[in-house]
Amino acid sequence: MHDSYNRAIDYLRVSVTDRCNFRCVYCMPPEGVQLLQHSDILTYEELVRIIAILTKQGISKVRITGGEPLVRKGIVDFVHAVKALGTVEDLSMTTNGSLLGPLAADLKAAGLDRVNISLDTVHPERFRHITGGCGNIADTLSGIESALQAGLTPVKLNVVLSEAVTEDDLVYFTRLVRQHPVAVRFIEYMPIGYGGIGPGMKADAVRELLEKHAPGSLKPMTFTGKGNGPAKYYRFAQSKGCIGFITPISDHFCGSCNRIRLTADGKLRPCLLSNQEVDMKTPLRGGASDTGLASLFFQVVQEKPAEHHLNNSDTDFQRRMSQIGG
Q1: For the packed helices 44-55 and 75-84, what is the interaxial angle rounded to 10 degrees?
Q2: Is 242 annotated as a binding residue?
Q3: Which strand (E) or helix (H) includes residue 155?
Q4: Is 13 annotated as a binding residue?
Q5: CA-to-CA distance for 286 and 18, rounded, in angstroms?
Q6: Residue 260 marked in a binding site
Q7: Is 219 annotated as a binding residue?
Q8: Is 27 annotated as a binding residue?
Q9: Which of 37, 79, 125, 323 has the highest Cβ tally under 10 A?
Q10: Is the confidence at residue 311, as pLDDT, over 70?
């Protein structure tokens, strides 16, 4: 399936819940956000039906997101049901990792291929602050270890370049990629949250500090594992892992974007950084045929914009990251 700009659309991000056990300061205001009613959230059966329809139209990669997907009961069975369709080539999940430790092996056995884990700092006090007082860094580090042991690889760590990231964190990540087959990806700060924390270092400064703490320089590489997305990857000589940089603002990658998003309440969105969305839940629950639901997918694909307008200060986002699925 190609959009009106001839981009092949083969990647669906599926939010299974708007709930999260963290209250990250750049994602939620201190008072929290208005949560969906349980009846508003698509059931697992409805989600599996939509995925089954869309994989017949060219979707081959599916990422499960939230909120935090691991807070929803029955998530392992849902992973198994999606994998059992036989049409998803790459099934992944984005998680904060805090609940992953005891579930990693079961998720792998159910058919999950790999995980992305959010980790914005390894300093315990800064971690607790940035997660709104809810997070314990030990739980997330345990989740990372369990993911590696279970074979949910490549394990990717997503680090938002906020002011919480310090040189001490970069020292830790330098050692980590040298010793373990992980991809640490530094993501440019996007001003679409609630301003609980500000932007931090730029990518060039991060690279300079990483090289300061490692012999040799970072060399460009081609990422050959599953999930070769918008990151530009580099590797130190002899390292088991690699470093990636994702720059959605300073050097956006809209021209090669291959994804659409399904929110937990059944809205299909052609772009993360846009207010465009099409309701799939109402026709789904109203008895629409598979052909009818597929036509909504065609509509969304053709409405996918050429690029985001995040640099436009007048943009008023109606939903925030936790309500979309990231």
Answers
A1: 30
A2: no
A3: strand 155-160
A4: yes
A5: 23
A6: yes
A7: no
A8: yes
A9: 79
A10: no
Side chain identity at 106, as an amino acid letter? D
Judge whether 257 is annotated as a binding position: yes
Cβ–Cβ contacts within 10 Å for residue 127, how many? 22
Is 15 annotated as ligand-binding?
A: no
The rounded distance, in Å, linking the Cα atoms of 260 and 54 is 11
Residue 42 has which token pair?
């698509």
Q: What residue type is assigned to position 279 of the chain?
A: D
Distance CA 257, CA 60 (A): 15
Looking at the chain, the number of H-run helices and the number of E-run strands are 10, 12
Please indicate if the annotation marks 153 as binding a ligand: no
Ligand-binding annotation for 26, yes or no, is yes
Listing DSSP states for 127-164 in one string gives HHHHTTT---HHHHHHHHHHHHHHT--SEEEEEE-BTT
Structural domains of the chain in order of their starting residue, each with its CATH number: 11-158+252-323 (3.20.20.70)
Asked whether the beta carbons of 32 and 22 are under 8 A apart, the reply is no
pLDDT tens readout for residues 61-110? 999 999 999 999 999 999 999 999 999 999 999 999 999 999 999 999 99
Which two three-digit tokens encode residue 226?
């599953």
Contact indicator for 309, 273 with CB cutoff of 8 Å: yes
64 belongs to an annotated ligand binding site: no
pTM of the model: 0.93
